[in-house]
Amino acid sequence: MLSIRLKLLLTLLFLVTLTVSVVATIMGIRMREDRSDHLFAMTSSAAHQKAKAADVLLESYKQQMDLFLMSLLDETLDEIKKDALRKRFFSHSKDILSVTLSDRDGNEQVTVYNEDKLHEVGIEKTDFLKNRRRETVRFIKEGEIILRNSTLSLALPSFTMAYQVKIGTDRHVLSADIHLHKLLGLVGTKENIETFLVDAQGMLIAHSVMEYILKGQDFSDEPVVRAYREGRGLSGLLEYDRSGVPYLGLYARSERGLFGVVVQTPKTVSYGGTVPLIRTLLMASFGLLIFSLFIGFVWSMRITRPIQSLIEMTSLVSSGDFDVHLHPRRKDEIGLLVASFNGMTSQLKMREEKLRSAQSVLLRSERMAAFEQLAADVVNEVKNPVEGILVHVRLALQKDVEDGLLKTGLVMIEREAKACEDIIGKLIKFASQEPIEFSPVDLNQVVDDTLSLMGHVLVNHGTIIEKTLAHPLGKINGDRNHLMQVLMNLMVNAQQAMADGGGMLKIVTLQSEDNVGLLISDTGNGIPKEIHQKIFEPFFTTKPVGKGMGLAVAYGIIKGHGGHIRVESKEGEGTTFILTFPVLEEVEEAPKILEATLSHETPEYGGESNRSDPKNT
Known about the structure:
Elements: H1 4-73, H2 79-92, E1 96-103, E2 108-113, H3 115-121, H4 125-134, E3 145-149, E4 158-167, E5 170-179, H5 181-187, E6 194-199, E7 204-207, H6 210-215, H7 223-230, E8 235-242, E9 245-253, E10 259-266, H8 267-271, H9 275-318, H10 333-398, H11 404-430, E11 439-441, H12 443-460, E12 463-469, E13 476-478, H13 480-497, E14 503-511, E15 515-522, H14 550-560, E16 564-569, E17 575-582, H15 594-598, E18 608-612
């Protein structure tokens, strides 16, 4: 087992090796980058200059086309003067081969040609006309300028320039076929460096290789052209592979976004004579770097990962979450620390659960004691006056009262006083003022007696009763009548909780070594978790009718028997009340299943079992 000190020493050794490798690698990379940066700077500057020069040239062509359009539309000139102006225009603008005015749908209206230039290069007007019409640009947006390659032959490389013009209230398209030689001059040629012009869609306009222009070579799939089409800046640089060869590429966009100047060159051109030295240095450094990185990474992860996990778990514990656990997979000092941390969190979790349980019991006891005292005070203060009212009202009613309104009022007073008397009776039971007469009680017999009174009512409401009683079952020290009152209250609550009274009511008795238990379950709507602790409080109820005293009285009776009651319920899944009492009389071979119920497991119920079904009643 390696100690942390030894691991740190090994880590330091590998870090030193890593530093040496990084320094060597950086030296080689810097040598390469210096060479590449110099080439990039030169090429980028030249590309931007060419883009600016092309912008100026295209603006010049546009101005010439605008002037020519004005002369065509000048109504003060007759056809002879206009013809003279056309000849003068083509003699001064020798690059312009033709000018066409069309409507927005591309229907030609006026076209003039530089017939001298066509004759000079040996191209017939009909061939040129056919090519021009085929290349007509349509549906140009306002303010948009379109450039497109329209080369007919190597003798006359050309491109089309078109844009929208306004004549009166109508929109038209003005286009011109222009000789490409000036743009080709901007492109130029240089060994191992490819330079060309593309339009806004990445289609070729000018290239140092004339065959590409004639064929309309598609460069739109070139990585640098895609970067130009997708980019938004005026320029961009990138590295990529082209047919398996690493390339450096850049583009410069015209200010108006009409075209782009693209330059691409193999990486080997930028490295020059430094390639062999860089390759050797990089290979050696790379091998050492990979080895150092691997070892350093493995050891650092083995050291820092458990510590990071401990930090995260400590943060959770500090926020009150003790349900955390780490797996101690190591046998060094960190493994011992993890094991100690797990032990600490387990102890904290157990203590928190015990503390919460104790606080809950204490709070409920204090609350019940306060309610009991309040009930006793209310009974002492109210009982005698209410009884006096009832006596006098009943005496008055025995006389022949002629006034009908008075008699109605007396009857109402009697009814309300009787309701107060009932509430006082429940308060007396809750405050334990009615004494409990203890005697050995068989809880199975209490269940049977209660069902003999309530079973018929429950079945008539569509409730299926399933009874599972444990035999033999130890007796408890209790009051039969009080216990029947508790069971009747729980059964009525279960019947009311099930929709339309339908559903199943399960009653189970069971025993552990020290306790006898009773489970009453229903398939009703369930009780929300947030009110589990409130249902035993006096005057708390979720029913539209009732005083909310039933469960409070039941709680007081069970407490008076030295027992406990708790509820398990989920909304939509029914409710189970679990009652436990100290066993008075032990029996031989009693079913030991109460512990499973108290630990939220599903017990295997034993003993007598029968079911009452409304369909068979």
